[in-house]
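quick one, 560 residues, struct below
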Amino acid sequence: MIRVLLRRVLLDNSILKSKNQVIIYVYGPYFSLMASKYVSHPLIRPETVEERLYQQNILNTCLEHNTLVILPTALGKTVLSLLVAAHRLSIHPLKKILVLAPTRPLVLQHHDSFRKFLLIDDFEVLTGKVEPKKRVELWKNAQIIFATPQLIRNDAVGGRYDFGDVCLIVFDEAHRARKKYAYNQIAEIYIDQCIDPLILALTASPGQDRTVIKETYESLFINAIEYRSKEDDDVKPYIHPLTMSWQKVELPKEYKEIRGVLEGMLNSEIKKLQSMGLLTYKKTKYVSKRDLLILGQRLRANLNRDKRQGSAYTAIILQAASISLSHAIEVLTTQDIEVLHKFLKSIQDKAKGDVKFARRITTSQGFSVLMELVKKYLNIDHPKQEKLRQAIMSELSQNPQSKIIVFTQFRDTATKIVHRLKEIELARPIRFVGQASKQHDPGLTQEDQSHILREFQSDTYNVLVATSIAEEGLDIPSVDFVVFYEPVPSEIRLIQRMGRTARRGFGRVKILITEGTADETYYWASMAREKKMRKIVANLSEELIRSGATPQKQSFLGKF
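---
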């Protein structure tokens, strides 16, 4: 086993030394000789929950106070929640526990995990398909309830439930608790109705903005934070090795030619906005997509205050056209010309429907030239397609039993990737997308999603080509290799994607980057934001400790 791992590491490092490919970092020891011990508790099935030092340390705080727990994917947030649940029910045997998650598949996943580990039979999953009167009855008779927050919020506001007999609420994917999300209102009702409330909030990443993180934990009445990363001493013994690398590609000259036309069209729109005094006058290349989005928010807010502003309508059309052209450049340079072609066709369809910004684009001087070039070069793949194909071939040739996830932002890209990967003899790819249906592209129902994941687990498929639906929450089997078709600017999504590998053994992550494009910006942004998040969370946690909010820690073993 050790020889195989060392050979794999040497192979990886030799690959990573090749042109345009650099290893970034390696997590974890290459093997662990630790003997497993199990948690012993009257409500937990014997020898099912491994005793982990960092979970014990975190649990001490969770049992005493409303706690925000920040743990990377695969380090056992669900296990931690059921440990807290077991303790609360042991001291409040007649009380209830409510477990909330943002999607029904994730709710069902929690239900299955609790049923697997706890010696309790009174479980109920509440859904909108059950009529309100029946839900009230199920709530009354159940001891542990699993549901989505919107349903519970609506029922609670309607007076159907009393949270006074709930001894614990678990808020999974707690980073969603912002603005008017249902979590916030549920927490407020719970704190108001319950004499002895306890809240456990779980997330892999709360965000990288101090104000946003504070909003999250204040909305959930949190006064203790427990944060662990893969670098913490009490976590390291349980971490499998993970290598992360990036590989750069250069745009073909044909793509650069198309980009030049798009940039000319974008420059024309931005100059008009600048002439109206709506954007700081500077070189067009420094007017970012973010600048345009902020401008759009400001224009619409002004229009809502005064409907008589004729110039505001013109500015909004210019801004919307600029956003679409900026997006077209990003699609071409980071995705593929086929994806760009579909996007431009959708703009033409909107123009036929008299959507003003779309008509502005399609009637502009450069649009006919643009479409001619796109059709001329339509058979030229983005170089990422070949790099991805090579990476998958290499992985499967070295390990035919390997499971792989390819992440991409766009459904159209996912479709093309699956088509290309089917050409590889050992690859059995399947597309995995969300429920929402788009034009000529129906989404997957929750039943379809569950079916695909079961077939991925059983090796019917070995490559899951997924959009963001595979990043958060879903119980996806551990994989050996994760490829980002493009970087993501969000540190939350970066952490969630990376967490899909190295769960039960050695794992690898590869990120494909097109030089001189939004890919590079997004890559460095996500890395910087992850570091910033760690620093902010550490500072906020220290502030809570200094304020006296975090209780003195007690022995974990004394609780079980």
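The chain has 19 helices and 14 strands.
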